[in-house]
Amino acid sequence: MQLQRKQRGLTFIGLLLVGTLVALAVVVVAQVIPTYIEYLAVHKAVRKSAGGSTVAEVRAIFDRAAQIDDIRTIAGKDLDIGKQGDQVVVRFAYSREIHLAGPAYLVMKYEGASN
To answer: Which domain holds residue 92?
Structure first.
């Protein structure tokens, strides 16, 4: 008597479903990556602007850095600037919405500080 082994693997329908899910995930990740790269640029500009001594100077330094790095999400006027001891501390917080489909959005909330 011959033993038959049960076949294992994906059916064609299963393969289509898995492929669709992977494609959707790739599309979402492709939209998230630019927002994260912009967050890194904002964080770098905030650290650079913390070298200013006055509020106006800090905002001007940030705006120049934002113009160079093409940061459009946040401006110098949106920064929270304060002092901690004798050191200038610059904080920021903003959110980005990524439209997925219909009424569905993915909201990315970014925040950080210069220290």
So the answer is: 12-113
pLDDT band at 1 (very low <50, low <70, confident <90, very high): low
CA distance 39 to 1: 66
Q: Let me know: does 49 contact 68? Beta carbons within 8 Å.
A: no
Least confident interval from 5-14, 26-35, 100-109: 5-14
For the chain, helix, strand, coil in percent to 5 are 50, 25, 25
What is the pLDDT, as a whole number, of residue 2? 61
| pTM strictly above 0.85 | no
49 part of a folded domain: yes
The beta strand positions in the chain, using DSSP E, are 80-84, 87-101, 104-113
Cβ–Cβ under 8 Å, residues 58 and 81: yes
Cα–Cα distances (Å) from 84 to 73, 91, 114, in that order, read 26, 12, 11
Residue 33 falls inside a structural domain:
yes
Question: How do strand 87-101 and strand 80-84 relate by DSSP bridges?
Answer: antiparallel
